[in-house]
Amino acid sequence: MAKSPRLSADPSLTLRSLSEDLLLRVLDKVSEPTDRKSWRLVCREFHKVETVSRKRKAVFRRDELADLARRHPWLEQLDLSACPRLVGHELSGLARGLRVLDLRRVSGLSLAGLEGLVEGCPLLEEVDVSYWLGFGDLEASVVARLKKLRRLRMVKCLGVTDIGVARIAVGCGERLEELGLKWCMEVTDLGIDLVAAKCRGLRSLDISYLKVTNDGLASVSALKKLEVLSMVRCFYVDDDGLASLGKGCDSLLRIDVSRCDNVTSSGLISIMRGHQNLQHLNAAHILPELTSPLLSKIKNLRSLSTFDIDGCEIYASILCSIGLSLKNLVELSLSKCPGVTDQGIIELLNGCNSLRSLDLTCCHQITDVAILAIGTSCRDLICLKLESCDLISDMGLQELGSGCPSLSELDLTDCFNINDSGLKYVSQCSHLRSLKLGLCLNLSNKGLVHIGTGCKELQELDLYRCIRIGDDGLAAIADGCTKLRTLNLSYCYQLTDEGMKHVGRLEELSTLEMRSLLKVTCIGMSSIAWGCKKLVELDVKRCYSIDDKGLLALAQHSKYLRQINISYCPVSDMGLFALIAKLRCLQDVKIIHALNVSVEGLEFALRSSESLKKVKALESLKYLLSRDLIKLMHSRGMRFRWINKHLD
């Protein structure tokens, strides 16, 4: 009888027998980032295969750029938005096969460095340079050399004018499909005219907050392939501009005209008349009410799936018409809409029972009756926002917990009638990922025990000013909600160092707000630093017992920290220097009224860092810091935000 083959006693020998091609096929089935990280830790072979095959990479430290192309030859998407000050020669070795590049908020990158990057990555199809402080017309002309560029986002690039936009339009031509110019305040009709003339293949355009007039919109209307148009707060556009847009291209699927103060219902009617295949319409904060002619046109938008009419007075009869007409509606926002009542919601849901997102923020007449109707009718609901719906009680949440099993986002901020019993019902939503309970003053540790027991998938929890919760409640959250990434504990005055020890067990935590935790000391801060290795944003404003020892713990353990607020904390020159000098990812520091920090200490700390991009400080320091320092920091791409605020 033949003996069955035996596996080697040494597992590493068995792994070496697997071909690289076979390992790559297995790795393709591993999608979760945490699982891929575990894969890398198995053995050298697994680590090598994962590293070589990686197609996406986010860089946090400059030293990672040196041999990036060698370590990741198949890299296609690179995110440098969190990387400190970039130097041109460091980018010369990027993978030539790169297709997507994120340069948001970069600092220090010179024009020559950008030119080298563009020459070294000829296959780039998508580039994001949003919030790049030094990005202007010259930089835009360099980006325009990319022969395969299809998507370009330049949000708040304040140095870009019509000249830069013209160079983009001429250089990219018809292959450009998406262009984002939001907050590029120097771009006018002239630049938009050139885009419309040269970029005939454009499918998505964002001109929000620009000085565009009706003439500019007339040019946009010539874009026959345009599907998405965002024009938030375009002050110089009125109904005539929307009329020309309605008569032009008939390809629009999504349009955002929110906060366009000179647009009325007549302009919206023109849009609807010319674009009856609209799927997304945002008309927030422009209409006092929905008129009968406008409502009759809305009824014809049979394909509409997302409708935002925040700030508009809505009555039950109107919601009834919307429910009967817009059967495909999936997302509806009625935030701050006076007139919304329980009856209106019931009438709406009689027709729109496929809603997946509903925003009722500040609809103060909503009671448990409406919530019961939502729980009964909206089985597929994913997102429900009920901030400041102060008539809602635990009874309404009972039906919500049992009727909406797929709910993943729930906002109950300032619903002050909610108590621990309500959270027991909420905990039945086992897929919940985001839960906001700020200003719910009746919640206690008992309620958090329910959440920790039932909401295992929770990633965001807001407990702002929940003044009755204590350390035991955080213990329950740490035990059950191990995937938590964002936590707000500000003004929860009962929390102590013991509670921070529980927070330190949340290994995935990246954002933590803990303002005015008066009982938390450096011991608690050290627990967080030791345990929360992935911490990126931290706010300890007015934590009067956190001093240099707390900052030293952060400097030693929180190597990925990018943003911190230490205003009003009793930190000194030594703690500030340790924090800024050692954390190479730190980019944003708020330091208002740190009375123990001297001007000389602040200067010394700032000079030690090449990663800082933004410092928020008292305006009086503007005249005390040396001109040389301010010039040096500006040359590194850092900017000061000066605040005039009295000590209180």
TrEMBL record:
<dbReference type="GO" id="GO:0019005">
    <property type="term" value="C:SCF ubiquitin ligase complex"/>
</dbReference>
<feature type="domain" description="F-box/LRR-repeat protein 15-like leucin rich repeat">
    <location>
        <begin position="402"/>
        <end position="477"/>
    </location>
</feature>
<dbReference type="Pfam" id="PF13516">
    <property type="entry name" value="LRR_6"/>
</dbReference>
<dbReference type="GO" id="GO:0031146">
    <property type="term" value="P:SCF-dependent proteasomal ubiquitin-dependent protein catabolic process"/>
</dbReference>
<feature type="domain" description="F-box/LRR-repeat protein 15-like leucin rich repeat">
    <location>
        <begin position="480"/>
        <end position="635"/>
    </location>
</feature>
<dbReference type="InterPro" id="IPR057207">
    <property type="entry name" value="FBXL15_LRR"/>
</dbReference>
<dbReference type="InterPro" id="IPR032675">
    <property type="entry name" value="LRR_dom_sf"/>
</dbReference>
<dbReference type="Pfam" id="PF25372">
    <property type="entry name" value="DUF7885"/>
</dbReference>
<dbReference type="InterPro" id="IPR001611">
    <property type="entry name" value="Leu-rich_rpt"/>
</dbReference>
<dbReference type="InterPro" id="IPR006553">
    <property type="entry name" value="Leu-rich_rpt_Cys-con_subtyp"/>
</dbReference>
<protein>
    <recommendedName>
        <fullName>F-box/LRR-repeat protein 15-like leucin rich repeat domain-containing protein</fullName>
    </recommendedName>
</protein>
